[in-house]
Amino acid sequence: MFKKTTILFLIVVLIVSLLSGCGGNTNTANSGNESSENGSDNTPKEVIVGLAGDAYSLDPYPLNETITNAINNHLYDSLVAPDANLQPEPALAETWEISDDAKVWTFNLRKNVKFHNGNDFTADDVIYSFDRSKEEMSAFKYCLSTVESYEKVDDYTVKVVCKEPNALLLAHLKDLMILDKETCEDQNDEWIALNPNGTGRYKFVEHVRGDKIVFERNNDFWGELPDVEKVTFKPITNEGTRTANMVSGSVDFIADVPVRDIHMLESKDNIQIVSQPSLRVIYLNLAGWTDTPSKDANMPLKSPDGSNPFKNIKVREAMYRAINEDEIVEKIMNGYATPAATYIPDGFNGHNPNIKRLDYDPELAEKLLDEAGYPRQDDGYRFEVTLDAPNDRYINDGEIATAVAGYFEKVGIKVNLNLMSRTIFFKYISASNREGDNTHLCMTGWADSGGESALMGLDLVYSMSQDGYIKEGYGGVNRGYYQNPEVDKLVDKAISTADPSERDKIMQEVWKLAADDISYIPLHFQQDIYAHSKDIKYHPRKDNYIHAWDMEFVK
Amino acid sequence: MLRYLSTRVSQLILVLFAVSILVFIFTSVMGNPVYLMVRENATEAEIQAAIEYLGLDKPLPVQYGIFIKNALKGDFGKSYIYHQPALGLIMERFPATLELVFIAMLLSALIGIPLGVLSGAYPNKISSKAIMTLSIAGISLPSFWIGMVMIFFFSLTLGILPVSGRGDIGTILGLQTSLATTNGLRHLVLPSLTLALANIATIIRLTRAGMQENIRQDYVKFARAKGVSSRKVLFGHALKNTLIPVVTIFGLQLGSLIAFTTITETIFAWPGMGKLLIDAINSADRPIVAAYVLFVAVMFVFINFIVDILYTFIDPRIDLK
């Protein structure tokens, strides 16, 4: 008996010692600047924000994801920062000049800027951060991919030379956050992520992964001080729980409000709902510019005569007209979506207001399909397609795809619905997927926070062939293999045009061409929906980034 | 005893080996992390670079070899999305889950066993019937629903408990835990109750069945005839003989609660391991999933070992050989 008691005792001791070893790994700032003692008589103006997810890393380089980026924007600054409409504004670079051939950019850096630990900000930090963006682990390698070289001219001047004329450099540079060279130089990546040191509006206080991130205002910030003195971000993944937190008042702000809770939240006295169309457009891509739309696919496109029906613009128009988008918005999106006519949202540069949605008209659609040479066969179907769509990526994506499949069936197109998780979807539909099983019809979404129509043109409608790039790096998400040399020429021209209004005009033309060719079928823009307490006022951004300095206290 | 220990350890090694192969195969078909890491319009060169950076360009057996080699050194790789060591991320979340499970198991034992004994001893009383009906409800109601209902009732309607999250953390005996602060305890109530409900019900039913069987045995009648108080008969004699299956189930449930509190943790935004796991699965973060499953396997073997030792306390006739 004695032996057994000893064993039990030893086990208990073992467990306790193991646990005390692994607990307490919370990561707290070591510079103990207690701001609450700075003589203010009021409690700090604090905001608690409930988000749909956590920041994965407080190192701004390894991951490029909305929530992580938005949180890191509090700590770090870039040379230029996008304003609420995504146009570049001076940040750590006070001014800049472009050479006449749009190849050489010279940035004059802001003086007397200090990092949170007191170090001075200089050109060396810029060069160090640029270098870091090109390292293996970085998710921001693309930012400088068009850049030939960059160098420090003096302590407050940096010169960037592009490979080709590039008027859109700023749209990429705004993604590169500036780290302190002295702090980070001799440390490994893990350390850098746990000890953030930037020049941003907020200083790091505490990060308990999965629970909360706490920042306090950086009172030495170089620009205008934000109203909010302390901000806590809480990851609350469950939609219902997020809403409940808002109702109970334990958070002051929530993002990604579920559509079904909006009405209930609005009925509360102290809660305000803010919503605006997002940049996220949901659309269909059809492989209409190839004779072999689904090489080696398990579920290929089948037409009676073996041709690719998508090549015929009448078929594309018929499919466009077969979809009742108003019904999708009303029934599936509860009214919280905006029907789209083009990839470009209203208010974004290059938006062409003359592009209108084709009207819903299933009868005309049937007529067009007949004319195109695809009459209904004995089984009642004209041809058979597979619609690939994700079911955990966009708002109600599975339901939307199911509805679309239903509309197609009504006009006699047999649809195999292929819904999958995003962990396999994006590889499957990738335009660079060379593993045989290509998509010929997919539903997906796109949101470009770059704020540059020309870059969207480069990605979405620049010619791309099924066998690979026509121009390296261009047309990366042109999943229908849309090809139009005129579009290519105009996009090239826009990229080297420094004058924004000129660029706008060129891009308006591009979007008109792409829409007239029915190179894709737009569905709708998702809505960004926020709820917050009436004690604060919130100015939402187009890119859905949530920043504490976009909130202000009403009183 | 030593021989017993050594068989257990060799079993552990076998289990871990088998589990590691399974995990590796499943996570490699689970999804492709590369396309979630790079931007959607990434060039082929960028994708290729990412694949090489993760080491996914090598054939699967080679990847497995590298994984095992590093795992033997205690290195389970860096998470693809957190860019921190996978095992460290799990251990960092472990205390939060453990305190939740600890309270839930405590509730299960303190509520489940006495109620089970009573309803077993007096099956015809109305109270016993009520207990049994409630226990059916406890088993059948899904925890995601119970969790939401509890939030609605206690937090929104009554407003007496916090909705979600882990509260303030204090220190007891060098352990950092929210058991040490009132605020922390208040945050613990709803999630641990949600987690405990199904277990309480199981324990009640199991104890009751055992009690009903034992209560008819001759030794119970004899004890009663001898004039032993009825409390002593029930809790001292009969209960002790029904405990073996209860302890077994208790051990198994403890393991699965620690490992798979996913749903409760997601609903209550509790920063524990379960939430880490589900996030990792959603983003095809193989190092975390692999480390997690191996960790859970070790834990199960360990818990079962403790259960075996407990048997010898409950029933001295059982020998560990």
From TrEMBL, chain A:
In terms of one coarse class, where is the protein primarily found? membrane
The record's annotation in InterPro entries points to: Peptide/Ni-bd (IPR030678), SBP_5 (IPR039424), SBP_5_CS (IPR023765), SBP_5_dom (IPR000914)
**Pfam families per UniProt:** SBP_bac_5
GO MF terms here are:
peptide transmembrane transporter activity
* A biological process from GO: peptide transport
**Residue ranges occupied by any Solute-binding protein family domain in the UniProt entry:** 87-450
- What keywords sit in the KW lines? Signal, Transport
Indicate the transmembrane segments per the record.
Answer: none
Q: Name one GO cellular component term.
A: ATP-binding cassette (ABC) transporter complex
Intracellular or extracellular location(s): Cell membrane
| Keyword Transport carried by entry | yes
Coiled-coil spans in chain? none
- Topological type in the membrane: Lipid-anchor
Q: SUPFAM superfamilies from the entry?
A: Periplasmic binding protein-like II
Gene3D superfamilies per record: Dipeptide-binding Protein, Domain 1, Dipeptide-binding Protein, Domain 3, Periplasmic binding protein-like II
PANTHER family listed in its UniProt record: OLIGOPEPTIDE-BINDING PROTEIN APPA, PERIPLASMIC BINDING COMPONENT OF ABC TRANSPORTER
Per the record, the similarity remark reads: Belongs to the bacterial solute-binding protein 5 family.
**This protein is called what?**
Peptide/nickel transport system substrate-binding protein
Q: Which organism is it from?
A: Paramaledivibacter caminithermalis (strain DSM 15212 / CIP 107654 / DViRD3)
Automatic annotation (TrEMBL), chain B:
* Compartments where located: Cell membrane
Protein name per UniProt: Peptide/nickel transport system permease protein
InterPro entries the UniProt entry points to: BPD_transp_1_N, MetI-like, MetI-like_sf
Keywords, A to Z, come to:
Cell membrane, Membrane, Transmembrane, Transmembrane helix, Transport
Query: What is the membrane topology here?
Result: Multi-pass membrane protein
Entry keyword DNA damage: no
Q: Which residues form the ABC transmembrane type-1 domain?
A: 94-311
Which family is annotated?
A: Belongs to the binding-protein-dependent transport system permease family.
Q: Does the keyword ATP-binding apply?
A: no
Pfam families referenced in this protein's UniProt entry, alphabetically: BPD_transp_1, BPD_transp_1_N
UniProt-listed Gene3D superfamilies: MetI-like (1.10.3720.10)
* PANTHER family named in the record: ABC TRANSPORTER PERMEASE PROTEIN, DIPEPTIDE TRANSPORT SYSTEM PERMEASE PROTEIN DPPB-RELATED
Q: Can you list the GO cellular component terms from the UniProt entry?
A: plasma membrane
A GO biological process of this protein is: transmembrane transport
User: Any stretches that span the bilayer, and where are they?
Assistant: 12-31, 100-122, 134-161, 188-207, 242-270, 290-314
